[in-house]
UniProtKB/TrEMBL annotation:
Family indicated by similarity: Belongs to the glycosyltransferase 104 family.
Domain of life (superkingdom): Bacteria
Keyword Protease: no
Catalytic activity: dTDP-beta-L-rhamnose + L-arginyl-[protein] = N(omega)-(alpha-L-rhamnosyl)-L-arginyl-[protein] + dTDP + H(+)
InterPro entries, per the entry: EarP (IPR016633)
A Pfam family: EarP
Name of the encoding gene: earP
NCBIfam families: efp_Arg_rhamno
Task performed by this protein: Protein-arginine rhamnosyltransferase that catalyzes the transfer of a single rhamnose to elongation factor P (EF-P) on 'Lys-32', a modification required for EF-P-dependent rescue of polyproline stalled ribosomes.
GO MF term (any one): protein-arginine rhamnosyltransferase activity
Alphabetical keyword list: Elongation factor, Glycosyltransferase, Protein biosynthesis, Transferase
Protein name per UniProt: Protein-arginine rhamnosyltransferase
Source organism (scientific name): Aquabacterium soli
Length: 387
């Protein structure tokens, strides 16, 4: 099928990250994708293959405006039109959807573990006015349960992960390919975060833990942006036991390789958070902060699902750590010991026995999610069903 996917970059990289990943997944299954994006600049690092002969099956195009439609006019829409995250489609393009066999029109929504997702997934949103009047649009909600649209998980992803995680030699080789010098025995932590995350406290805590446990150093891999900025701003002397390594922006598949090679992944937003789930390793999620504070409920909803079958003590400690990383300490928690103290749950999790428990629980939750059909498989069923 031919797909038109429309993406508006609101901020950061998640909108484009999700749309690019969706496009790649569809193209790998033989579909033709035209990805319309208003600010394609991040594709230069996220999808460097587009700079060369391109990606078979995907054409990334700058989103023109109605005032300045494409030279030669709007092209005929494909069989499926995806409006990512409720971005408004150009009127000229929508006018072209008015035909005897109109395209399936999908509004792909943001990911949430909250219960409204099951109620809203698949709902019809009839269009009553404007150039799309009379057309039928449907909501498609990604999610974590059987009654949602699932999560992006390309065919073969988990096999590739298992190969990458097979042994130390493979791990060292994959990290070396990313320019990362890793010594077996070192614990590796990746950090992708928003400004305001307690990165300095993390460094202090990790250095203390590394020297306490007698020898096993920690290698911290910092992604561009807030994590790297925190290091640059630090005037502290090097911390014993801790090795900080700044990464460049990686192409999306290389970013996966990074997450697979780490013992602990600290991720943010939407897309990298899902990739950390598929890594099957312990992770900490910094949720996208919203002014009205609704992100706190979203974070708790996800933790309740992800940790549903974990031993209670492990779930309790991990939740405390995630809350602290997100600056969401429960009122009355009494934590007045500064950020180092707030990240104290990490010390509990770092111990060998608890760490093994955390790793096993993360892998089990990942395996459970992987038993659900992935998002593209579900989306294909949805758009080919009569509707
Ligand atoms: C650091 C890095 C990221 N990436 C990719 C992974 C993801 O596709 C993308 C980052 O997107 P996210 O993880 O979603 O985090 P994010 O914070 O960048 O994105 C978003 O979060 C959403 C919830 C908001 O609604 C969006 O508006 C946006 O803020 O960048 C790489 O490919 N290489 C890299 O080196």
């Amino acid at each position: 099928m031919r797909w038109d996917i429309f993406c508006k970059v609101i901020d950061n990289h998640g909108d484009l990250g999700v749309c690019w990943r969706l496009s790649r997944d569809l193209a790998s299954r033989g579909h033709q994708v035209r990805l319309w994006v208003d600010d394609p600049s991040a594709l230069a690092w996220m999808a460097p293959e587009l700079g060369g002969p391109g990606h078979p099956g995907i054409e990334a195009v700058q989103w023109p405006t109605d005032e300045q439609p494409p030279a030669g006019g709007w092209p005929s829409p494909g069989e499926v039109v995806v409006e990512a995250f409720g971005c408004e489609l150009p009127a000229g393009f929508v006018a072209g959807m008015q035909r005897s066999n109109p395209p399936r029109w999908i509004n792909l929504e943001y990911l949430s573990a909250e219960s409204y997702v099951e109620r809203s997934h698949g709902l019809l949103s009839p269009v009553f006015s404007g150039p799309g009047a009379g057309l039928r649009k449907h909501f498609f909600y990604p999610g974590f349960t059987a009654r949602t649209g699932g999560l992006l998980r390309e065919p073969g992803l988990l096999n590739a992960r298992d190969l990458a995680q097979a042994d130390d030699a493979t791990r060292a080789q994959r990290l070396a390919a990313l320019g990362v010098p890793w010594q077996p025995g070192q614990r590796v932590v990746s950090v992708f975060c928003y400004p305001g995350a307690p990165v300095q406290a993390l460094f202090t805590q990790l250095a203390r833990l590394s020297t306490q446990t007698g020898g096993a150093d920690t290698l911290v891999l910092l992604t561009p942006g807030a994590a790297t900025a925190a290091v640059n701003a630090a005037s502290q002397p090097p911390l014993p036991g801790l090795h900080l390594h700044a990464l460049p922006y990686l192409a999306q598949p290389a970013f996966d390789t990074l997450l697979w090679a780490c013992d602990l992944n600290i991720v943010r937003g939407e897309d990298s958070a899902v990739r950390a789930l598929w890594a099957g390793r312990p992770h900490i999620w910094q949720i996208y902060p919203q002014d009205d504070g609704v992100h706190a409920g979203k974070l708790d909803a996800f933790m309740a699902r992800w940790m549903a079958h974990w031993p209670p003590d492990l779930a309790h400690t991990t939740r405390a750590l995630w809350h602290a990383w997100n600056g969401l300490l429960p009122a009355g928690s009494g934590s007045d010991g500064g950020l180092d103290a707030e990240l104290a749950p990490l010390a509990t999790l770092w111990g060998p026995a608890t760490w093994a428990q955390w790793a096993a629980a993360s892998r089990e939750s990942c395996d459970e999610l992987a038993r659900q059909p992935d998002l593209v498989t579900q989306l294909l069923q949805f758009v080919t069903a009569p509707g």
